[in-house]
Each structure stands twice: as structure tokens, then as C-alpha cells.
Amino acid sequence: MALKVLGKKSPILIAVLLSTTLAMSISVYNVTANLKNYMELLQNETPVDKRAEYVKSAKGNLRLALNISGFPGVSQLLNLVDLNFSSIRGELLSSVEIAPLVLGSPQKLRYLVSFQNSAEARGTGGILGAYAIVEFYKGQIKIVQSGSNASLDSMSLKKIPIAVPDEFLQLYGHNPAIFQNSNLSPHFPYGAEIWLGLWEKKFGEKFDGVIAVDPESLSYVLRATGPITLDSGEEITSKNVVEETLKNAYKRFEFDNNGRKEYLVKILNATAKKLEEGSYSKIKLAQALRDSIIQNRLLIYSTDVAVEKILSTSRFGGFMRTDPNNEFRTVIQNIDASKLDYYLDRQVSVKSKTCGLNRETEVKIRVTHALETGKGLSAYVLTRADKGKPADLVSGAHRFKLFIYGPVGSRLVSASRENRTEDLGGSATERLRPIYVVDVDLAPGESEEFLANFAGGTGKISFVDQPLVRTTEIDISDGC
Hints:
This protein has 480 residues and is an alpha+beta fold. It has helices at residues 2-7, 11-43, 48-69, 74-80, 89-102, 166-172, 188-203, 215-225, 241-252, 257-277, 282-294, 305-311; strands at residues 109-122, 125-137, 140-148, 209-213, 228-229, 235-236, 299-302, 327-334, 344-354, 360-369, 398-405, 411-417, 426-430, 433-442, 447-455, 462-464, 473-477. The radius of gyration is 23 Å and the shape is globular.
């Protein structure tokens, strides 16, 4: 359809569109060349002032490329070939700002990489299922260690190892002092700092930051590297990696949980090897990073105050900012230790009800347990470790908490849940945002709708999605 529309344009206009697209391509090429030269300068220990020239040039070319991508018709052409990166403008500019601070550091920097298992939901995505330690030095990136969370069982304390606000303790208690629960809050710096604190307490090692990814973001990377082949001969691709790691592996390794975790580590190591060898498409890798950023599947935290300040202004940081906004969220918190969040569908609508001084917004979410039956699933997947579970428990039933967040400075006016007049839940506050909190228990095939009305909010309505296995259906209707 897009090509037909363009075909009706005048030859002069088509020439202009092609020229601007070419100009953007040249700008993107220049950015790549700038960064390549920058890496070489780092490895050759070139003076800092010389490196700064290249960073400045890269930023200029990047801004030019992004500005060109906003020209009428150009974005249409770029979308046609999946080369439009304007949606991550802030993150691209942040990356260029961060590069000299991270890659140009005179010391080796080590980051903890958390591979989040989104089949068991946490605030920032999923439970820490595997990890890696990545080293940045003189423009080079190297994976120095990897493992499953089985080796982190001792990384748990009775009290949270960092200072947290009273409201945090009221919401989560000291549960985040266990590494599996460190990221209960959707505010990523909380989880990252707790992981770092636990690691230092247990292993005596300090890291310079945390990077979080998940199986879906790994599938995007595999689009760039192509399939990987494990020692067993099994082929893992971008199309099957999520299902194999978050569904099939639980049945295959039903009686060997450590074997399942090692299976995941082998997949991560094989993918990392391809990246280290340069066996990937640079364009497809850029697309993988873009898609991961848009879906909040790539998060970064740094102990360097200057770097963290830059990260906090983009989606990289996973920040719940406290400046005035009109941002809404819905968050699933797994509380039964099952792996049934793999089967959760979410439909969210955010709708203006009134505007002006008495502005009010309605948030509605329907959560559906899409599992047909618990029959045939492993006991590990069906775990019900929650307290107070019913005596007549249905196999495959899933219990979780639902958090609906209003914007900074707003207040929760009312809340309701479908077909219930009791157990309606309660309210809480986190980072100046009111929250409707409710306990949910769904049998296979069941669904329930929840509604929360918030008064207040500043600016245009926005919604930050929690990155789980299934993509949330989101409908925003902003009439103000």
C-alpha cells in the first residue's frame, strides 16, 4: 500500500524523498564510522581530548539522521524496510553520551547481567533465572563468567542490603532481600542495587552496574546472529527460543531442574560466542536492540552517578520518575512460585473521563489465564507455594497480585473488580504514585476485569508496559 501511495507522487517529490533517505543513510554510516574510530582510539589509548572530538561528531551525525527520519515520507520509507529508529531517539542519544564514560573508563568495568525469566513475573519483568558477568575495557566487551541462579542460592539475607524508603517496606517487606525477589518493584534501580548489595555481601565482589534482558530480547538477537547449535545438535532459533526455554524445558527437564538451568546457560553462552566473534548482521542487531528498548526488555543501571543520571532520562534506566506526569502502569507479581505467567493475557485500556482541574482517568485491565488445563504440566510449573491456598485447589490455578499505578501526584478515587463485592483489594503508594493492589486467583481458562479511577495527572496520557511473555493489548483514549 505504501509503495502505491508513493507512486502517485510527482517525480520531483519522489526524488526529494529518495535524497533525504540517502542523506539519512549517510548520516547513520557516519555515526557507525565515528563509533568504530572511537573504539580504535580507546584500544590505542589515544588522549581523551581526541576521543571527545569523535564523540561530538557522532552525536552530530546521529541528531542529523534522527531529524531526517522525521521528514514527511522518509519515515514511511524507513518503516517499509524496518530501518526507522526515531522511536528510540532518547536512547540513541543517551548511548552516545554514555559511551565515553563506560567504554572510555581507564579501569575495567564489570556489569552483572540478569537474564529475567518472565514465566514468573516480577516488577521489572521476571525472576532472575541466569546471570553473566560482562567486562568493558578499552572499547572491548568480554563475558568473563556465566551461570544459572542455582549457584546464587546463598545470595539471600534477612534484611534488604540497601537503604529503601518506608513505603517500599510497606509494599514488599524484606522479601526483596532474597535474590529471586530483588526486583519486585518496577523501579529498576531498586532491584539492581539490591542485587549488587546481595552479591557484595555474599561474594565480596563489587560491580559497576547491572544489565537486564529476557528470552524475548534474546530471540531478537538471534534474528541477527541466525540459529545457534548446541553440543547436543539441537538448533535454537529466534522463533523457538522463548517456547523452548520458558515452556518446553520444564517438561524436558521435569526431574532435573539444575539440568534445565544449565540448558539456558548453554543457550546464552552460544549466543554470546556469536556476538563476540562478530557473526551477526549489524542492521538486525540494531533492530533487536531497538525492539528490546521499546518493549522495556533491555534495562541498564550504573553505580557511576554521571552515567546513571543519563540513564534515568531514557527507557534504559527503567525509572519510575517522580516529576509530574500522566503515566500509568499495570504490574503482575507472581506470589505462588509457579511458572504460569507464561500463559497470562492482558488487555488494558486507559481512558479520559473528565478534563481540566477535575481531571479523572479510568484504567481497566482484563487478565486471562489462557492455559486450557494443568494436566500434563510439570509440578514445578504448577507450584502453589503461596500461603492460604484453597484446600480444593484446581490444578493449573494461578495466584498473583495485580498492581495498577496512577501518575505522580494523583489519587486513587475508586476501584472495582468483576463480579465481586468483597476482597476488593487495597491501596498503597510508591514514588509519589497511588496504587490499587488486589489479590487474584484464576483457574485455567478464567479471566477477570479490574478497574481503577485516578484523579489528577499532568500532560498527555502514557502507559509503561511490564515485559512479560505475552504482549499486552493496550488501548489509550486521551480526550484531554
